[in-house]
Amino acid sequence: MCGIAAIFSYRDGPPVEKSELLKIRDRMTSRGPDGTGVWLSEDQRIGLAHRRLAIIDLSPSAAQPMFDSTGLLAIVFNGEIYNYRQLKAQLETSGFQFRSASDTEVLLHLYADRGVRMLDSLRGMYAFALWDGRKKALFVARDPYGIKPVYYADDGHTFRVASQVKALLAGGAVDTTANPAGHVGFFLWGHVPDPHTVYKGIRAVPAGSFLWLEQGQTVREVSFCSIPSIFAETAQKSVARNGTRKSTLSEALRDTVRHHLIADVPVGVFLSSGLDSTTLAALATEEGGSLQTVTLGFEEFKGTPNDETPLAEQVARSCGTNHQTIWVKRRDFEGSLGHLFWSMDQPTVDGVNSYWVSRAAQQSGLKVALSGLGGDELFARYPTFSQIPSVMKALHRIHYLTPLGKGFRIVSSSVIKRWTSPKYAGLLEYGGTYAGAYLLRRGLFMPWELPELMDGEMARAGWRQLEPIAAIERDITQIASARSAVSCMESCWYMRNQLLRDADWAGMAHSLEVRVPFVDIELLRSTGPWLPNAAPPSKPDLASVPHRRLPPSVLSRPKTGFTVPVREWLLAGVTPGVSPNGDRGLRAWARAVHRQFSTQRSNE
Fold this sequence. Notes:
The protein is α+β, with helices and mostly antiparallel strands.
């Protein structure tokens, strides 16, 4: 895991300034404390920079930017390629010689062998920028799920790339005009949806896409792998009798865990009392031997049902892991509030829990930790999997009232908001489709509330740019199964734009690589055909995979989520707790985050 940066003066732009490249790179110091690198071409038209967190091949031979033997191909890379050993063997058979034991060098030779088609061979989480000196072209790619972020700024003359939005801002040469879609997206969802940011001049490379930019040309964006397409394709495949479901799931889960344990440093597990992390810890122990686990405990929760530490410690004893519980108090949060907001790359209402569990992992001595993130999306543990189909079914019975939905919302919204969630006012208008029902379920503020949060024209412009309903519908239009459709929406919206992004910035704030075995392209391809089945894989099926049975107290525990008192503490610190308009809880927290983020940007 690392921080990457690139600047390409591709069309009548000024020469690349090393000082700007270093400012971008060094805003990402925590992403790579183990080493730095920078390179500029002789004509100063291209520059690459890197900060290294050494995980695979800890030697100097794996330093970046890395060049091939001709000196014409160079790369900066963030992430891990879990099948790099198999790919390396293939390349050696074809005559390629290696000077390191890194997955980075595999990428270089793979590109030399297969060009951009190399992306079809990769299994992992990655974002990289590769310079092809023969073609005078920059090749930037991001993994299919979008686990690893990469952003770019293109002013028509100079093209800039970095692992973080704030890194590009630190360079001082990008357009920071407010992007309506980014601000609307944040209040709508609680995060900024890709490819938008809150700045007009900065965009995310879409998940499963690459950018190709040649000297003197315009940038070309190409999608090479689509998660919605995989959901659609696997949903159409026939599966054998239900008796093979357990063996298929077991093989797929063990395979992804084995791949995610590959490292030249110890790998640990974030351990809570939930089925995802406990199953992960059990499988990692069985597949990788000695294992370190870490649990975050809150002094305020001791002796209450929200205290996960006793069950986590019970699981650790059962699995035989080297376990640590890191305790946190309110004053710890207050002392680190400034660093949390400084590290938050884009505004988000979540991520605080990831920040603190990553801090705990760092304190326990880990550089790599496995997370159970993605289990709920694949194994249907969220309420959305039952609620969205139920709402649609109920509204179908009164479909003749749908044309009245907008009028009902306009008349009732101000009254409903006084007594309950404003979402109920939009049931008739939005609840009859998957996309609309998903917006109602996952939305933070509703579309008709946006003008209360910002200038009305900005709200309307942002809504038009986002087209959230149409965008969600495009993702699921080919998916006939309700289970697969909801899983796709959760994976491509909430998980990608919130959970994965938050895990990245929060982990990197503490120089910790967070790996997500449940977010794996091969796992999806293996389990996808079972999702539309009458008996799709479930969390109990997941928990039955380890050879050693999990403790009954874990198996019988209802899903509660990872409960932390952080939001309440921070609300008490940065806002009165109830905003002037009456918003409480998450909505008040969203306003506070937006204010903090805006103030922080003006002071950077």
